[in-house]
Amino acid sequence: MPESEPILVYREDAIATIVLNRPERLNALNKAMWRRLGEVMRELSADEALRCIVVRGAGDKAFAAGADIAEFAKERADSRQAKPYGNLIHETMQALARCRHPTVAMIRGACVGGGLEIAAMCDLRVAGESSRFGAPIKNLGLVMAYAEMAPLVRLVGPAVALELLLEGRIVDAAEAKAIGLVSRVVPDDEVAREARATAERIADGAPLAARWHKKFARRLQDPAPLSAAELDECFDCFDSEDFRIGYAAFLAKQKPNFTGK
Q1: Roughly what angle, to the nearest 10 degrees, separates helices 114-121 and 79-98?
Q2: Is 121 helix (H, G, I), strand (E, B) or coil?
Q3: Which of 10, 35, 49, 107 lies at a CB distance of 3.0 to 4.6 Å from 17, suitable for a disulfide?
Q4: CA 248, 195, 89 angle in degrees (round to 5)?
């Protein structure tokens, strides 16, 4: 894939890595990046052989430093322009949310605004000690729309989400870990290694179980009562080939080689 593409995708075995690729602008998100990220997420979600996706920014200075403000005059100058642009962002956010495979955000440097929104959509977030987080869009007179705010509220709760949005404060990695923004913090030079190790641990597990766990976790965020069919689905794993492989491997004290069936 040409290095000039706004989104790069690398594949190694059952793990894919998505790179937000504008290092010269600290990976600031523009329209082309939002569109392509959504396309890539939908393509990878449909890939049965895949078991985990790592999302990262190009270079080591930023995961993504928010929106490309220079694009506003042309693409988001008023509500008429902003609405279709926002719909594109929301479609991409839904593609991230609906991805069947576990996702890991590998974060170094700035993770701000839209970058924070993307990281919040991932299942796990591994951050370097010098990474920084926030959403200071109040300084632009802008709001974080419902679809973009929802994952942040689910992740840290409404009080902390409002603290970040109302104050516009940038927090360091230690505070981000304390308030639940990130899953773990490691030294900067170990971020890539830890993110990869995390993805490998996920990929070593039964892929059907990972997909069910993601589905169940999303469903539990809906206050509607679980149906009988939904409760019964929890036992479908016992009919899977992965269960038979895992059970036999456990008894034989061997590493299971799951098929995803």
Answers
A1: 30
A2: helix
A3: 10
A4: 110
How far apart (Å, rounded) are the C-alpha atoms in residues 70 and 28? 10
**Sole residue written with tokens 């600290």:** 26
- My answer on whether 171 and 90 are in the same domain is yes
State which of 186, 203, 220 marks the end of a domain: 203
φ/ψ of 47, rounded to 5, equals -85, 110
Measured distance CA(211)–CA(78) in Å, rounded: 40
Does a structural domain hold residue 257?
A: no
> Over the Cα atoms of the chain, what is R_g?
19
Q: Are 112 and 132 in contact (CB under 8 A)?
A: yes
C-alpha dihedral (216, 220, 223, 229), degrees to nearest 10? 30
One digit per residue, the tens of pLDDT, for the chain of length 261 reads 556 799 999 999 999 999 999 999 999 999 999 999 999 999 999 999 999 999 999 999 999 998 888 888 788 888 888 899 889 999 999 999 999 999 999 999 999 999 999 999 999 999 999 999 999 999 999 999 998 999 999 999 999 999 999 999 999 999 999 999 999 999 999 999 999 999 999 999 999 999 999 999 989 988 999 999 989 999 999 999 999 998 898 999 988 888 888
Long-range contacts of 72-75 (CB under 8 A, 24+ apart): 75/31
Evaluate whether residue 150 is within a structural domain: yes
On whether both 142 and 223 belong to a single domain, the answer is no
